[in-house]
Amino acid sequence: MSTATLDSHKVGHHGDAHGHDHDHHGNFITKYIFSTDHKMISKQYLLTGIIMGCFGMGMSLLFRLQLAWPNETFPILETLLGKWAPDGKLDPNFYMALVTIHGTIMVFYVLTAGLSGTFSNLLIPLQVGARDMASPFMNMLSYWFFFLSSVVLMSSFFVETGPASSGWTVYPPLSALPKAMPGSGLGTTLWLVAIVLFIVSALLGGVNYISTVLNMRTKGMSMNRLPLTIWAFFLTAVLGLLSFPVLLGAGLLLIFDRSFGTSFYLSDIHLNGVGALSNSGGSPVLYQHLFWFLGHPEVYIILMPALGISSEVISTNARKPIFGYTAMIISLIGISFLSFIVWGHHMFITGMNPFLGTMFMYVTLIIAVPSAVKTFNYLATLWKGNIKFTPAMMFAIGLVSLFISGGLTGIYLGNAALDIQLHDSYFVVAHFHLVMGSAAIFGMFAGIYHWYPKMYGRMMNKTLGSLHFWLTFISAYLVFFPMHFMGLAGVPRRYYEFSLIPEFGIWMDVNVLITVSALLGGVAQLLFLYNFFYSMYFGEKATKNPWLSNTLEWSTELEHIHGNWVGEIPTVYRGPHEYSRPDRELDYFPQYEKGNGEPEHYHAPATAPDTSYDGKKEKASTVFFSSFAHLFAMRRA
Amino acid sequence: MNTFLKLTLKFTLAVVILFSTASLFSDSIDISNLKVEQLSAEKPFFGADEYKYEPGKMDTPETQLSSRINWAIIIFSVLMVLVLANAFDISKYTAKITGRETVNSNNVNKWIMLFFMIIGFIAVIWEYKNHGKHILLNNSSSEHGVNYDSMFTITLVLTTIVFFITQFLLFMFSFNYSYKEGRKALYYAHNNRLEIIWTIIPAIVLTVLVLRGHMTWRSVVYAEELNKGKIRSIEVFAYQFGWKARYAGDDGILGEHDYKFISGKNELGLAYGPEVDSLLASLKIELKSEEQALKVLKTATLANLKHQLDSADGIKNYKMMESIQQSIDDINDGTAEDDIKASIKRKIKQIERIEAIKKHSDMLKSKAAMDDIIVQEIHLAKDSLVTFNFRSKDIIHSAWLPHFRAQMNVVPGMPTKFTFRPTKTTAEAKKEFGEEFEFYLYCNKICGVSHYNMKIKVVVESQAEVDAWLSTQQPAFIKRPVAPASSTPAIMVSDSTAMPAAAVDTTKKLAIR
């Protein structure tokens, strides 16, 4: 795609009314509400995501209160929730609803739309060098479908029978039969409508991201010069595009079963207070297959953008090229491909053919290999770096730590034999909250702190940021680590209280610990909110390239203009991670800087000692292993 | 203006935080007094099967310790916030005055990284030690569980090693290579040899784990096929919210069943002719009355409801008025009519299908279901294989027996099963886990409001004891002449002398099945 075409595209849109792009100021509605500018849409996504995140986190705190102090009453709950918390004690039906909507909000609204929506929108055009998305109008539609979907989902709290409450996976028959559970009435209908709208939004967004990355890269921006963020967003969009329609299908069939008397998922059911249903021949397991065909790629739809962001943040702040750029891309592609054929590991004991279980176990454990490669590459990137602990960097390091902790337990759960015992226990809760919940949220925070100057032209407070990081990090571990042991001791998830089973008495004080830590985590998020909104107006003014980064987005003006660059889009001369090159004075080398004929990658001469670090000359082949000795000797540089 | 806004913002935030924490922790929660005893529930919800709660042995020192830990966390974090905020605030002002930075935040964070790692590792080890002793490992009560436990141990050891090494490297690199003015990082973009090494090593380790997992998985899920003819079968039936088990009667055969036969007297829907006939008859009567109700819905019923509304109004019973008004609304907007019509349609279908079964199949002519024994407690014989055949009445449940390392979903319309061999009697398990210990089968798939209270007791004992217990249970559709267990010892004696022969007989018949 040549710059000329891009320019004509730009002129076609705005050239008539205004002479220059940066003069473009619509009225309030076109600028802030129905904006087609990708930067504004990204902010809209972010704000909606943060608001939904507050709801999601608030819900988790509510049900954590119930789990920690099942016999206490909290009068404030009745004031807040009315009939859902009679006498200040959570109603068991509402507990289920909270668990369900917490899951839905966090998985879809915060970590899919809030994370991928925000940063794909912000970074894809800026980092590939495009004036805007391939179809700005579709992009706007994507956001508004998402917004509508959020409103529909939240409105289910005002329904007489309550919101959907059959778990975020809404397995039929429970979710299909209003008489089986109050939440399966209108609440589930609204849930399904919200999800259908959400899928429309995700597909509109995904098509846009893919076509922008493939077609609108600036001159010199070949695929192997793309920042890893863009690779992650691109593959995420591909995953979403291929898997969300399957969830749409599953949802539509469920709507048919609920409203039009079909029997896709229903068979041989005799319901209390209703009698024998006429439905016959359907299979609840079919729904699970369809659901998890999205559900598993969804895990990577959540995680990969976070990994992409952390790659970029770690490379920038460690002042080092990301170790094994190609290996990182191959790992991402491998994870994307494999994620489509491992969905059955959520269903080992659903009664599907045990032979399938074997197959799914094999592919699931294969997926651990690219994940391990990514982890080691992060470690190698930090090694002998010059690490600046910006809040973004710390969140990225936290992500790696959580990704390790949560990822390792995946080895247990991916193993069909071990899953017999661990399925649906607290071990699973611990696993996925660490590896895709906390890790992805940390990626999102890393992104927010890193690109805040790009979004709002101001810096966030660094001290508050560090404080936010440490409190969140500590609370994440305190909340989720003990859950492993609960699960291993045989505590099932989604239980309203454990006092009816005497054996679980020993976990009561652990439940209190978890809740206290979760409240601590909640307070930490208040620090973030304060920092976020305060800095928007009173933060320190940002410079053009505050992190001394290489990528293209930092070449734009601080003030947001429609079309991103004044004049021509810069040309790209090299990869995104050329930090600390020995042949350069400065420790960074922007992609858009022409340089003085340096090679694209720095290669040390074969004869000379090729690395210098801390003023010492060392041989590259020995450095890695010798560094272990340095570490143990605590060599202070 | 800006300063004023800043101050107001800070002030409101402080007030909000202060008040919310104060209200949370002052009157509602008193962590220090929380004891396990207080957790007994007086009333289980919504007709779930009732079990008396007996508090477990109180672990007083541990409880106190953990409540102290909770307080320590709260206090520590509050202090940390205050101290750090003030330190940085002060450093900011001194920096402004003196013109140079007094606190290097990069250094502070680097040291916190190190402390976090050290304290984190200590905490992890503490967790392994203190909470690790409660986990179900190396104390399996089933045969395959031993295999499971050894596999779990291998995975646990491997992942723990990897956990410590990688986390150590992560935090040590962070600590060791933090920013220093004038230092340049090492330009080190890739090394194929290293990358190949750390691709191949995980691949090999995972291959080993997968193969081991494959073998264990096979031996568990194909246990029935691998041990043909030596297995006792029982049926485990799940419903909202409880479990029932069905044993074969004297004939050694579990009778057939169909969900359409379920009625008040035939809770499991067994194929027993007379019972199904009476269900048919009552369905037809209900059908008639529903048709009748449909006719008078808009006339007599409505008038009656309005009359009731007036009388409720007379005694000012607003709750009753509300529900009556709801019924009137339902009639007026047609939902009541739709409901009755749907119910009629459903019943017609049910009658049609039952009659088709009667006509075309021998199912209802069989007497196999007559003597089946339906019980509220599962009794298993030690050291003999048993297959649980699962059936769900309504929605998906999951039967989890954590101490036997056994779990299988219970899916409506799809038979599932799990085969295992218990190796510890309840009495033996009590010695190991404490006097109050009982084996339970829990529900482990979200199934509705009382999901958390859906369990059935499992008792493991000797084969003779199981048979003795069975002989005291009433069969589903025939009256057995024997008296229940609590009767006079004379009968018990005669019973137990007859037992061995009968037991052998039953086992033989089961073997045929």
Query: Which outline of chain A best applies?
Result: globular
Q: For the report, how would you describe the main beta sheet of chain B?
A: 5 strands, mixed
Question: What's the tally of helices of chain B?
Answer: 12
Strand order of the largest sheet of chain B: 3-2-1-5-8
Interface with most residues: A-B, 164 and 151 residues
Instruction: Report the order of strands and helices of chain A.
Output: HHHHHHHHEEHHHHHHHHHEEH
Biggest sheet: strand arrangement of chain A: 1-2
Structural class of chain B: alpha+beta
What order do the SSEs of chain B take from the amino end to the carboxyl end, as H and E?
Answer: HHHHHHEEHHHEEEEEEHEEHH
Q: What structural category characterises the helix and strand content of chain A?
A: mainly alpha
Number of strands of chain A: 4
Helix proportion of residues of chain B, in percent? 55-70%
Tell me, what's the shape of chain B? extended
CA-based gyration radius of chain B: 33 Å
**Total strands of chain B:** 10
**Assembly state:** heterodimer
Q: What topology does this entry show?
A:
The complex is a heterodimer of chains A (about 625) and B (about 525).
Chain A: H1 3-15, H2 28-33, H3 38-68, H4 75-81, H5 92-128, H6 136-155, H7 186-215, H8 228-259, E1 270-271, E2 275-276, H9 284-317, H10 325-339, H11 354-366, H12 368-382, H13 391-413, H14 416-422, H15 426-456, H16 462-488, H17 508-538, E3 611-613, E4 616-618, H18 620-632
Antiparallel strand pairs in A: 1-2, 3-4
Helix pairs in contact in A: 3-5, 3-6, 3-17, 5-6, 5-7, 5-8, 5-9, 5-15, 6-7, 7-8, 8-9, 8-10, 9-10, 9-13, 9-15, 10-12, 12-13, 13-15, 13-16, 15-16, 16-17
Chain B: H1 2-28, H2 60-98, H3 105-130, H4 143-176, H5 192-221, H6 223-226, E1 232-239, E2 242-247, H7 273-314, H8 318-332, H9 335-360, E3 373-375, E4 377-381, E5 386-392, E6 397-401, E7 406-410, E8 416-420, H10 426-433, E9 439-443, E10 455-461, H11 463-471, H12 489-512
Parallel strand pairs in B: 1-5, 4-10
Antiparallel strand pairs in B: 1-2, 2-3, 5-8, 6-7, 6-9, 9-10
Helix pairs in contact in B: 3-4, 4-5, 7-8, 7-9, 11-12
